[in-house]
Amino acid sequence: MEPATGEGRCPHCRAFWEGGGNCPRCFHLQSLEGVLASFEMAGPARQAVHALKYRFVRALAPAMAPHLVCASSGHSFNAVFPVPLHRSREKSRGFNQAELLVQAAGWDAEPGLTRVRNTGRQVGMHERQRRANVAGAFRYAGRDLAGLRVALVDDVITTGATMQECAVLLRAAGAREVWGVAFARASYRVALPDAPIED
Questions:
Q1: What is the model's pTM?
Q2: Residues 72/181, Cβ–Cβ less than 8 Å
Q3: CB 150 within 8 A of CB 177
Q4: Of 6, 21, 72, 181, which is most buried with the most CB atoms under 10 A?
Q5: Is residue 13 part of a domain?
Q6: Residue 28 is part of a domain; what is its CATH number?
Q7: pLDDT along the chain (199 residues), means of 10
Q8: Kindly report the CA angle at 37 between 34 and 43, in degrees rounded to 5?
Q9: Run of H or E residues at 34
């Protein structure tokens, strides 16, 4: 599996990038302090994400979770939020893959962040469609996060639209920093903003 670290990666969002500074994908991720991802969404990493999410192979979560812990080493978090699914999606799937990863990593899942609108699958949507799709889809009704460093955990981050929408709410609740933590990072092509994105 190809690590989402090192040279040729955006220092902020971990996507492929050989230019200077942050890559253009980061323009819409202002509420995220940064992204901590383990692998590029390709090959075995992509297969693992799809098997967990679409084939419901829950046994993969304990194998994937240590990589999230490794990716976030050196960062201490006061609260960890799994990116929520809508209750109808979680009921049909039987679980939230982000929650499984948080549990398998040995982290305590913080309550209060919910998805109040069923946005459906975003596969095939381009970047702007994804941002519009998740706008207003989440709600936070948890504790005061004043001054806290917070992690948002998911299996994969693609455009970051979902994490950005959640991060806005957590920042409004007082969070000092919100970091995205994911098993995989999908490096979609920034040169084609209207192209459908598979992952």
A1: 0.90
A2: yes
A3: yes
A4: 181
A5: no
A6: 3.40.50
A7: 93 93 91 97 97 96 98 96 94 95 98 87 68 80 98 95 96 98 89 54
A8: 145
A9: strand 34-40
